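Q: Joint fold for the lines below.
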Amino acid sequence: MRRTELGSWIAVAVVLAGLAVPWFLWGSATVVAGLPVWLWWHVGWMGLTSVVFWVFTQRAWGIGIETAEDSSESPERADPEQRTTLGGDSP
Amino acid sequence: MRAVTLQVTIIVGYLLLALGVGLVAYRLTDRTAEDFYLASRTLGTVVLLFTTFATLLSAFTFFAGPNIAYAQGPEWILVMGLMDGIIFAVLWYVIGYKQWLLGQRFGYVTLGEMLGDRFGSRWLRGLVAGVSLLWLFPYVMLQQVGAGTALEALTEGAISYAVGAGLITAFMILYVVVAGMRGIAWTDTLQGAFMLITTWVALLWVLAAVGGPGAATEALASNPDTDGFLSLGSDYYTVPWILSTAITIGFGVAMFPQVNQRFFAAGSKTVLKRSFALWPILCVLLFVPSFMLGTWAAGLEVAVPEGANVLPLVLAEYTPTWFAALVIAGAMAAMMSSSDSMLLSGSSYFTRDLYRPFVERDLSDRREDLLARGGVVVFASAAFVGSLLEPAGLFELGEAAFSGFAQLALPVLLALYWRKITRAGITAGVLLSQLFYILSLFFTFVPGSYAGWTAGIVGMGLGLVVTVVVSLLTSPAAAERRAIYFDRLGAD
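A: Joint structure:
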């Protein structure tokens, strides 16, 4: 189950990278609203990428990296007092 | 002369502002190496995002990049978007998040330290640091050369090249030594925001002057020298070239010490998540305006003499002097925000991975902190001397640094995700790919291009194959801790 999910996210990453350059518009010089249409594609695609990345952070972050069964284990570092910021977020 | 005075005032004013930020950061620092190098792993979203962003963007975004767009068309935007916005962002998760977790758990500060611990080898640790410094040093030198040249050009020779480069170096030493990572991250945030805003104002200003993007693009299309710029692809921008460049640089960026080290510095998982999602948008926001300005300048027939940069000339033509100087200050900011972080990381690689394991093993925390600051001074001064002497060979290394670092990426990825990798495997993979790539730079018997694909990407493939094959043929050394990258990993 987790494996299929991981596979799907890898496929998503490959598609996102693969179409950042609109290969199907190779040689096209059509201009829309002052910019080549291939540049508009790129700008839109990067926007879409950001949205997909955000969805990834909400739904699948940790996949392929965290070992889920015992992620509640406390870390084993020498100086635990330095870790108080963990989990908090100070911009 | 008035223009020069104004320009110098703006740049010096900017330098003093950054120093002020550094001093405020100094008041908050602990006197430990971890705080100096990583701000005690406490960076928040905005600061981490902008410090990585500003660190990543050297003067290329303002000078070399628009120059290429001016000469060859705007397709570089696609290369930048793919490599920085997507490939690097994916590595931000795949390499960065895992490194961050490991750093939280075992207290790693450098990449070499992380690998050395896993493979039970201080030699591997030293090798990774040595290879990194080999590429980092000339790259820092190039930034100083850039700063010296830009200041000399801006002031029409009133500030000589040597004085300009020296001034920037002295200033960087001062605030890196004083402020460490926290100060750098804060000034980077300032610099990143400053770059973004000035670039957009510059774009809108120039477009308003020439009658909007439609008119500017029409000028490109109707000029016989540049009418090919609008169609995607050219003899320069071929498919293998775009892919080679985007992949090698994207992977190279993740191995650049000052970027890689930021993977350890995030304050929390949330910080990493937010930065990851915002990354592609941030890249588009900066690269589209700066590269389109260079491209449009070609259609508007802004004359660029040999060796000059197009962006300052476009600004000089269409915007007031004070604003052009402000953007040049922004470019200086870009240059310095990369160099300062490189000095800090270079110093940490040297003290932690070379000096401590091989010279003085029982180094106290306090003494390491002092040594680290001393390392910054030595590293910066040596690079400055290099920028004055400009010895043959160093330039080639600096120009090739991204591809050089990219050679490290696949062995490191294998180390992070493949349980069967051995010490012999990763060592052979790192050594051979480095050797191959360096030979391709300096000797003709190793070609630089393979059917349009660069030696950089071929070297990455070689490193991957060698690491896998040697790992399968050898058994792990007794000191290797094979499970530490896999067991009980999770930050909640």
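Q: Anything notable?
A: Chain A is about 45% helix and 5% strand. Chain A touches chain B through 54 residues (CB under 8 Å).
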